[in-house]
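Task card 7
Instruction: Convert sequence to structure tokens.
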Amino acid sequence: MNFFQPDVVLKILAFLIAIIGHEIMHGYVAFRYGDDTAKKMGRLSINPLKHIDPIGSVLIPLILFFTHAPFLFGWAKPVPINMNLIIGRWGYGAGVAVSLAGVAYNLIFALLISGILFSGIFGNDTGGWTQILILFFVQLIIYNVVLGIFNLWPIPPLDGSQALSFICLKFGFDALPRFFAQIGSYGMIIILIILATPLAQIFFYPVQFLLHFLLT
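Output:
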């Protein structure tokens, strides 16, 4: 396997579209709620260099690549958001919307690509470029579903934990948000342990279910 094989190039491109679009959507929804932090820092740009995270966008994907993992995995640099401003103006519901904006992008985008893929637009064309485009669409679906479901895990600093915290606070329950705050510094360690153990199969089961739905 090398970086210049067509299927590898398509995987990397699909991976970047998934992680960069995810972060841009966080910043865009925050901007719609009056927070222009990401816009001022140029983080609403589609320029990948503004979103590359050394660990999540480079190190982890490279490890998976050289260990012949079935798919690349990682994350982009988080978009800066003034959540206190958003919640202060619009309440915890707005915090939930901003938190889940990236997940919504990934899952809706995967659904749209699946719709195009099975719309019959390709007909009976089996030419080289058609096959490349189909392969690209499949990779887009895979990476957007993987990233979207992964970020729903209720583990800080993932989006699921943040959204769940805001939902609890909206209804006056602060025990879970306090627990997330206590384990926040260990969140990445917990995530890496899950990814490196059979627990990953349990946590990623919704991915398998959704991919079966979108690709068959």
